[in-house]
Each structure stands twice: as structure tokens, then as C-alpha cells.
Amino acid sequence: MEVRKAKSAGFCFGVKKAMDTVQEQIEKNQGKPIFTFGPLIHNEEVVKSLQNQGVEVIHSLEELKALQDGIVIIRSHGVPKSIYSNLEERGLECVDATCPFVKRIHTIVEKESQAGKQILIVGNDKHPEVEGIKGWCVTPAIVIESVEEAEKFSYSGEKNICIVSQTTFNYNKFQEVVEIISKKAYNVSVVNTICNATEERQTEAKKLAAEADVMIVIGGSHSSNTRKLYEICKEECKETFFLQTLDDLHLEFPKAIRLVGITAGASTPNNIIEEVQNYVRINF
Ligand code: F3S
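Above: inputs. Below: predicted complex with FE3-S4 cluster.
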């Protein structure tokens, strides 16, 4: 039986950078309180392990306002500009671990909205990344998540529209939304801000699942990119399993397996992926 791990499984560039930043801060600032604004990544194991090393999570602006002292790390999803001002006003040290691909969107929307354009974000309005992007627009942004919403959309404003996307949005869906908005004859400029890491991971997972007899997807239960991976794999391979850690692995594998495929979401640490991979190799 072969066990094959997808090359793109696990931390993406932005998440890896955020993790390295936190570790660096822990080493440099022994004894100083360290916080992350929101959980650093969508993986409970990682958040717990950081808590054990003294890194606490701040969940809201109110909690942030109550802080007297410490270092606040901005996670890879990014935050609204007002959070930086708040930290600065109160003299709290801010370490920015926003993914550079997300930072690029902040720069675009700030510049374009300052130039008088209406910003339209294609993405999930409730996702922290979109919350962050909205907070860099100098005038209120519009958020559209689906083709249906794009069809219903009507705009009576005079401004030219600038469209950007949440980094993890599906490329085909983004194109469809852009086409619909463009047909409505607004003066539209489009910046494709989708990050390749997500698309590459999904394409590779789909291909591997199509070949595999059993497919294992590892990731946090709150991680939307892991759930999406699971759905993609399940469509290709009936025997697809979702696990957070090795403890969830109580598999009854079907007989005569030739290939077990393994992939993992962007916030799944390598050690968890390796544990699962080794366990499957040894025990089945
Ligand atoms: Fe950044 Fe792309 Fe990861 S935007 S956080 S590298 S999925």
C-alpha cells in the first residue's frame, strides 16, 4: 500500500510567516505579555500550544482596549487600519504578521478609495480577512459573495468601481461575479487578489483524491479552507476522512487499498501531518 502526501499540504507561506513571527517574539520577550488579535490560525492544537507558551488571544476591540501592557501580534488575515491606530495611541507594541498578499489588498483599497473609487470586495463579509480589508477603505466598501448577489446588485452611485477579492476566494466564481458586474456597464477596474496557494492546494487534492482508495484531510474544525478541501476530495473519493489530530483516526479501511492520499489545510502544522502519515504507513 502506498501513502502519498500532497506536496501543498499544510502551512502556506503567510501562515508559516505568522508562526515564525510568534516564535521569534516568544524567544525575544521572555516574561512579557504577548497577545494575538484573534486566534493566530484556525487550528486549536496550535492555539493551545501557543497559550501554553504564554501567548493569549484577544477576541474583540473591547478586550484590546482593556490592555495596559504587552505586545500585540496581528495575525496573517490582517485587521482594519483603526486597530493599528488604537494600539499606537495607547502605546502598545504591535508586531505585524499580516500576510504580504493580504497587505497588498489593504494598500490597493486604501489608494483606490482615496482616489474616489467605490471598492467592491468579492468574498465573505463575515470573514476576518474581509473585515480587515473593509477597514482600509476610506469610504464604505460593498461586499459580494455569490453570483446571485452579483445579479441582484444595482449601483446608482457615480464613482468608478474597483473590484478586489478575498485571497481564498474561488477563481472561477470570482470571474463570474466580475463579468456580471462589468456587464452592468459601470466603469470597472479589476485587481485579481486571489492567492495561488489555495488554488494549487485544491487542484492537487482533487487529483490525488481521484487516484486514491482512501483520502485523509487534516485540519482544524473551524478552518474553512480545510472543510472546502474535504468537500473537493469527497466528490472524488467516497472514502474521504476529516481529522484534526491523530487521535481522531479510528479508521476501518476498506480491504485491498492500493493508495492512501493525505492532504491538509493551510493552518495544519507539519508534525500533525507527519504523525498521521507515519501511523497509516505502520498500521495499515
Ligand atoms: Fe497568505 Fe495565501 Fe496563505 S494570502 S495567508 S499565503 S493562503
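The chain has a mean pLDDT of 92.
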